[in-house]
Amino acid sequence: VQLVESGGGLVQPGGSLRLSCAASGFTFSSYYMSWVRQAPGKGLEWVSDINSGGAGTYYADSVKGRFTISRDNAKNTLYLQMNSLKPEDTALYYCANIIADGWGQGTQVTVSS
Protein backbone atom coordinates (compact mmCIF):
# COMPACT_ATOMS: atom_id res chain seq x y z
CA VAL A 1 0.00 0.00 0.00
CA GLN A 2 1.40 3.39 -1.01
CA LEU A 3 -0.35 6.66 -0.33
CA VAL A 4 1.09 10.07 -1.18
CA GLU A 5 -0.67 13.24 -0.02
CA SER A 6 -0.28 16.68 -1.53
CA GLY A 7 -1.97 20.06 -1.50
CA GLY A 8 -1.26 21.30 1.99
CA GLY A 9 0.04 24.75 2.76
CA LEU A 10 -0.47 28.00 4.61
CA VAL A 11 -3.89 29.63 4.28
CA GLN A 12 -5.69 32.47 6.02
CA PRO A 13 -8.76 31.81 8.16
CA GLY A 14 -11.80 31.48 5.94
CA GLY A 15 -9.71 30.21 3.05
CA SER A 16 -9.80 26.94 1.16
CA LEU A 17 -7.45 24.12 0.27
CA ARG A 18 -7.84 20.89 -1.67
CA LEU A 19 -5.83 17.91 -0.53
CA SER A 20 -5.10 14.99 -2.85
CA CYS A 21 -3.91 11.47 -2.12
CA ALA A 22 -2.45 9.29 -4.86
CA ALA A 23 -2.89 5.59 -4.11
CA SER A 24 -1.04 2.58 -5.46
CA GLY A 25 -0.20 -0.99 -4.54
CA PHE A 26 -3.76 -2.10 -3.92
CA THR A 27 -7.15 -2.13 -5.62
CA PHE A 28 -8.15 1.41 -4.70
CA SER A 29 -11.74 1.07 -5.89
CA SER A 30 -12.39 -1.79 -3.47
CA TYR A 31 -11.62 0.06 -0.24
CA TYR A 32 -13.08 2.60 2.13
CA MET A 33 -10.65 5.47 2.44
CA SER A 34 -10.12 7.95 5.24
CA TRP A 35 -8.63 11.29 6.11
CA VAL A 36 -7.13 11.59 9.59
CA ARG A 37 -5.33 14.58 11.09
CA GLN A 38 -2.97 15.30 13.94
CA ALA A 39 -2.72 18.76 15.42
CA PRO A 40 0.51 19.87 17.10
CA GLY A 41 0.86 18.16 20.47
CA LYS A 42 -2.37 16.20 20.10
CA GLY A 43 -3.42 12.70 19.12
CA LEU A 44 -4.89 11.45 15.87
CA GLU A 45 -8.34 12.76 14.97
CA TRP A 46 -10.55 11.07 12.39
CA VAL A 47 -11.82 13.61 9.84
CA SER A 48 -13.76 11.79 7.14
CA ASP A 49 -14.47 8.48 5.41
CA ILE A 50 -15.72 7.57 1.98
CA ASN A 51 -16.95 4.17 0.85
CA SER A 52 -15.48 2.30 -2.07
CA GLY A 53 -17.93 3.61 -4.65
CA GLY A 54 -17.91 7.16 -3.37
CA ALA A 55 -21.61 7.46 -2.64
CA GLY A 56 -21.27 7.15 1.12
CA THR A 57 -19.42 9.89 2.96
CA TYR A 58 -18.98 10.50 6.66
CA TYR A 59 -17.58 13.43 8.61
CA ALA A 60 -16.47 14.40 12.07
CA ASP A 61 -18.75 17.01 13.62
CA SER A 62 -15.84 19.44 13.71
CA VAL A 63 -15.63 19.57 9.89
CA LYS A 64 -19.18 18.76 8.79
CA GLY A 65 -20.51 21.34 6.36
CA ARG A 66 -17.03 22.71 5.62
CA PHE A 67 -15.08 19.73 4.25
CA THR A 68 -16.00 17.43 1.37
CA ILE A 69 -14.38 14.07 0.73
CA SER A 70 -14.43 12.57 -2.75
CA ARG A 71 -12.59 10.04 -4.87
CA ASP A 72 -11.79 9.30 -8.49
CA ASN A 73 -11.43 5.54 -8.79
CA ALA A 74 -10.26 5.84 -12.41
CA LYS A 75 -7.32 7.94 -11.20
CA ASN A 76 -6.75 6.08 -7.91
CA THR A 77 -6.99 9.40 -6.11
CA LEU A 78 -8.69 10.56 -2.93
CA TYR A 79 -9.53 14.21 -2.28
CA LEU A 80 -10.46 16.47 0.61
CA GLN A 81 -11.91 19.87 -0.24
CA MET A 82 -11.58 22.12 2.80
CA ASN A 83 -13.52 25.38 2.92
CA SER A 84 -14.03 28.00 5.64
CA LEU A 85 -10.82 26.91 7.28
CA LYS A 86 -10.23 27.77 10.93
CA PRO A 87 -7.02 27.99 12.95
CA GLU A 88 -8.07 24.84 14.78
CA ASP A 89 -7.90 22.96 11.47
CA THR A 90 -4.10 23.34 11.58
CA ALA A 91 -2.70 19.82 11.52
CA LEU A 92 -0.80 17.20 9.60
CA TYR A 93 -3.38 15.52 7.37
CA TYR A 94 -3.03 11.85 6.54
CA CYS A 95 -4.69 9.78 3.88
CA ALA A 96 -5.32 6.24 5.12
CA ASN A 97 -6.52 2.83 4.05
CA ILE A 98 -7.29 1.73 7.58
CA ILE A 99 -8.41 -1.78 6.64
CA ALA A 100 -5.10 -2.50 4.90
CA ASP A 101 -3.20 -0.45 7.51
CA GLY A 102 -1.73 1.86 4.92
CA TRP A 103 -0.89 5.51 5.71
CA GLY A 104 0.65 8.32 3.77
CA GLN A 105 3.41 10.57 5.02
CA GLY A 106 1.01 13.44 5.64
CA THR A 107 0.64 16.96 4.28
CA GLN A 108 0.79 19.98 6.55
CA VAL A 109 -2.13 22.41 6.68
CA THR A 110 -1.59 25.65 8.57
CA VAL A 111 -4.42 28.14 9.02
CA SER A 112 -3.12 31.46 10.24
CA SER A 113 -3.33 35.16 9.50
Order of helices and strands: EEEEEEEEEEE
Record field, number of beta strands: 11
User: What's the total helix number?
Assistant: 0
The secondary-structure class comes to mainly beta
Low-confidence segments, given as residue ranges, are: none
Q: Name the helicity range.
A: under 10%
Beta-strand percentage? Answer: over 45%
Largest β-sheet summary: 7 strands, mixed
Termini Cα gap: 37 Å
Oligomer: single chain
Rg, rounded, reads 13 Å
The residue-averaged pLDDT reads 97
Tell me, briefly, the overall form: globular
Describe this entry's structure for a reader.
With 113 residues, this protein is mainly β. Helices cover 0% and strands 51% of the residues. The protein has strands at residues 2-6, 9-11, 17-24, 33-38, 44-50, 57-59, 67-72, 77-82, 91-97, 102-103, 107-111. Strands 2, 4, 5, 6, 9, 10 and 11 form a 7-stranded mixed beta sheet that branches. A hairpin with a 4-residue loop joins strand 9 and strand 10 (102-103). The radius of gyration is 13 Å and the shape is globular.
Short descriptors:
11 strands, seven-stranded mixed β-sheet, four-stranded antiparallel β-sheet, single chain, globular, mainly beta, 113 residues
Question: Quick recap of the structure?
Answer:
The chain has 113 residues and is mainly beta.
Which SSEs are present, and which pair or pack?
Blueprint: E1 2-6, E2 9-11, E3 17-24, E4 33-38, E5 44-50, E6 57-59, E7 67-72, E8 77-82, E9 91-97, E10 102-103, E11 107-111
Parallel strand pairs: 2-11
Antiparallel strand pairs: 1-3, 3-8, 4-5, 4-9, 5-6, 7-8, 9-10, 9-11
